[in-house]
Each structure stands twice: as C-alpha cells, then as structure tokens.
C-alpha cells in the first residue's frame, strides 16, 4: 500500500461531502494518506476507517452557519443555484448555495455563478447575500437537507441540471514530427484571439526549456513532459481560458490521461484532440532539420515513426491531413470544431 497518494479535485470534493455529512465514504485508492492537488494532507487511513484531516478551500457548513449567526441572521433563507427570474421572490437576506457538481471550488464556473448574483445587489430591490460554493449535487442530496446542513431553510432553487463546465478548453495537437502541428496551432491561436478569447500557447521548445528542463528523451521522460503540458493546460481551462499545445504525444495512454485531467478540471467538452495526420513520407520530405535522415542512420534512438511507434488516435475530435492543404484551411477546420463544442454551463438556466 502506498504511503500517500494524490487525489483529484473531484475526489477531494467527494471527501468534503463525506466530512460535511452529505455523502458516504468515497471510494479511494489503497494508501495510508491522501493529499490534494497542492500536496496538502487531507485524510489518513486508520484502523477504524478513513479520518479526514482537513479539506482546503471548501467551507464547512458549521462554520458558515456560525458566521451567519454572528452577522445577526436568525433562521436564514437559502437559495440554491442561479437567481430567480423575479428578484421579488427573494427575502431580504439570502444564503446562496452554489452547487458545482464536483468541479474544483476555484473553477471559473463558480465565479460565473457568483457573478450572476452580483446583479441582484444592484437591482431595484436590495438583497443582502452570502454566496458559498457547495459540494453537493442534486442526485446526491435533496436541496432542503442541504440547506438544513448550513443552518438555513430552503426558499427555492434554480439549478442547471448539466454537469458544470467552465467554458475553458484544451486544444491538444498530436502527430509525427514535421506533420505541421506547431504551425497549425499557432494559426489557430491567431484566429481565436480574433474572436476575443483568452488563449495560451504552450510552445514545445519553451516547455522543454522551462517546465520540463532536465528531462531527456526516454519514454518515461517524454511521458512526463506530455503530462506536465497537460496539467498546465487543464489548469488554464479550469479557469475558463483556452490552452493550445502541440507535442508529438505518441502514446494513447498518456493522451487519455491528459484528456481525463482536462475534463475533470473544465468539464465535458473541455478537451479537443486534434490529430495532424500527415503521412510519414510527407513528414520526411519536409525534414528541414534532417531529423528523419539521422534517425534512419541510427543516430537518433527511439525516434517516433522510425524506431519508436506512433499510436494513431482513435478518439480524435478533429483529423487533419495537411497534404495539399494550406495552413489557414487546416486551422479553420480545427477552429470550426472548437466553436461547435459546448460552452459553459455557467451561462445559467434559461
């Protein structure tokens, strides 16, 4: 059994639900201790069972109830989710419970939901608000019970039934060396910036120089490099941004790990895999750096496509063969897929 293992944000949220009396003991991997994404110890396994040490970022219901009492709120009213269509339906003081359905508490979907309530304060009728992100989702616990745990009485709810999405995305380009990944990715960034989106390009050379400095080109090191790129990209998407990255990423299992991380952080539609499917012969013909020629001579060991495999994606949202296509045409194929993907559930129910 491992001494410690690191939990995902969704697992930490499940741990918080258990700690706050809103759910059963979560099914966690075998380990003696459990950390959150920042390395903070959140639970330990003891003979009597799982003991929760602390759950950073989630506010315990008892603490919220105590603070409301200190503010002079007696028998506070709670509203779950988005503001009602008519502000007149609200009492003068409201505890707003924002269910984020397993999304990280610092995800953009939380701030989007809180921002929707900001307009209530400046409306025609002033309402005093306290907004609290909560771990519960509708299938897990009824809203009246949730309100009661926070020391409040349910006044109403308006909840988006879909899984929380931040609106952020990871555009992950994969393909052979020389396929055109970086060139297309750079043009996609330009097109996205023209739409007014916040975009971050994780350039392969810069990542190697900074984030992955010290790594070599063994399979283990290459996998680590791709996972680091994926983690940073997922954090960008978690906060509503768009991350564009274009490593070779030859192995399906590592690409699946990156997809899983992005969708855990940003929600459904948070990951778009772009396979730049330029054939090997075309990539070799473009070999401006002479890498393929050196690999053919055995001077570069484990070179993808020559002496090391490239596992062709079967799950790509977009497939682009650049043969006979200009960069702009390829980039617009990718952009069409991105713009067609679902936006944030944070827009709230209609």
Share of residues in strands? 15-25%
Walk across the major sheet and give the strand order.
Answer: 10-11-9-12-13
Count of separate structural domains:
3
CATH topology description of the largest domain: Rossmann fold
What is the typical, i.e. mean, pLDDT? 86
Q: How would you explain this protein's 3D organization?
A:
The chain has 350 residues and is α/β, with parallel strands linked by helices. The protein has 3 domains: 2-52, Archaeosine Trna-guanine Transglycosylase, Chain: A, domain 4 (Roll); 61-158, Rossmann fold, CATH 3.40.50; 169-343, Rossmann fold (3-Layer(aba) Sandwich), CATH 3.40.50. The chain has helices at residues 9-19, 61-70, 108-121, 143-149, 181-194, 204-209, 219-238, 252-266, 280-285, 291-296, 327-340; strands at 2-6, 31-35, 41-46, 49-52, 77-81, 93-99, 128-134, 153-158, 169-174, 199-202, 242-245, 271-276, 318-320. Strand 2 and strand 3 (41-46) form a beta hairpin. The model is unreliable at 344-350 (pLDDT under 50).
Task: Briefly say what this structure is.
With 350 residues, this protein is an alpha/beta fold. Helix content is 35%, strand content 19%.
Write the topology of this structure:
Layout: E1 2-6, H1 9-19, E2 31-35, E3 41-46, E4 49-52, H2 61-70, E5 77-81, E6 93-99, H3 108-121, E7 128-134, H4 143-149, E8 153-158, E9 169-174, H5 181-194, E10 199-202, H6 204-209, H7 219-238, E11 242-245, H8 252-266, E12 271-276, H9 280-285, H10 291-296, E13 318-320, H11 327-340
């Amino acid at each position: 059994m491992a001494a410690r293992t690191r939990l995902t944000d969704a697992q930490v949220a499940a741990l918080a639900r258990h700690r706050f009396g809103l759910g059963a003991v979560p099914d966690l991997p075998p380990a003696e201790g459990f950390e959150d994404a920042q390395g903070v110890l959140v639970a330990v396994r003891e003979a009597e069972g799982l003991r929760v040490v602390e759950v950073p970022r989630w506010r315990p219901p008892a603490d919220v109830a105590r603070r409301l009492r200190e503010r002079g709120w007696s028998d506070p009213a709670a509203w779950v989710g988005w503001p009602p269509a008519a502000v007149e339906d609200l009492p003068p003081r409201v505890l707003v419970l924002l269910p984020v359905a397993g999304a990280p508490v610092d995800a953009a979907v939380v701030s989007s939901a809180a921002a929707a309530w900001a307009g209530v304060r400046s409306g025609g009728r002033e309402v005093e608000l306290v907004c609290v992100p909560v771990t519960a989702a509708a299938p897990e616990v009824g809203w009246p019970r949730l309100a009661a745990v926070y020391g409040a009485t349910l006044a109403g709810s308006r909840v988006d039934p879909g899984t929380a999405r931040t609106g952020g995305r990871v555009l992950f380009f994969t393909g052979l060396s020389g396929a055109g990944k970086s060139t297309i990715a750079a043009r996609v960034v330009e097109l996205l910036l023209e739409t007014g989106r916040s975009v971050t390009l994780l350039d392969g050379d810069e990542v190697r120089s900074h984030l992955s400095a010290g790594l070599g080109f063994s399979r283990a090191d290459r996998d680590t490099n791709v996972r680091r790129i994926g983690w940073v990209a997922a954090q960008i998407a978690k906060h509503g941004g768009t991350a564009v990255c274009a490593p070779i990423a030859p192995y399906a299992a590592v690409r699946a790990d990156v997809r899983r991380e992005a969708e855990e952080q940003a929600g459904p539609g948070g990951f778009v895999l772009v396979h730049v499917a330029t054939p090997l012969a075309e990539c070799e013909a473009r070999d401006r750096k002479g890498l393929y020629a050196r690999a053919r001579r055995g001077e570069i060991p484990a070179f993808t496509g020559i002496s090391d495999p490239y596992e062709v994606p079967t799950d790509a949202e977009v497939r682009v063969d650049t043969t006979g296509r200009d960069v702009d045409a390829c980039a617009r194929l990718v952009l069409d897929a991105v713009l067609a993907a679902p936006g944030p559930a944070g827009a709230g129910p209609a």
